[in-house]
Amino acid sequence: MLRDKxxxxxxxxxxxxxxxxxxxxxxxxxxxxxLAAWQKEVVAHFRNEIGNHFSAExxxxxxxxxxxxxxxxxxxxxxxDHMWLRERFSQAENGGMTAKDLLLFAQRLSAHIxxxxxxxxxxxxELASPEELADLGRRLTDALKESNEACILPTEAxxxxxxx
Length: 164
What we know:
mainly alpha
């Protein structure tokens, strides 16, 4: 099913976060000497976009989705993911992630995004009226206006290298 335009701002941010996840997965195992740079990049993504993204979902999207009984368990699961992911962002901010932690973080964030895209967004588009989706889109656009959509460029330590 084609993504409703009301959800495209969230999907666009999902693409940015998935790109980070793919880069972490491809760079793994991450060398100990590069851990600080990767954690700094994870924190930058959270500060620039993901933190505001989570807030927009929790304050705008999830309350709308909760009105549909079949989506309530999924919302609870996604909120649990948000809590776990926020803890990992905090861990990165404190420089406490190992290479294994970074890989687990990337895998969990990627799975979370796919759950939102494939399950929540899909079902919401089926259950909500066009008017409800349009109103949701306006409210999401307003909630996401604080996000910094500047491209976060990899550093020398976090850019992917050709396989040898």
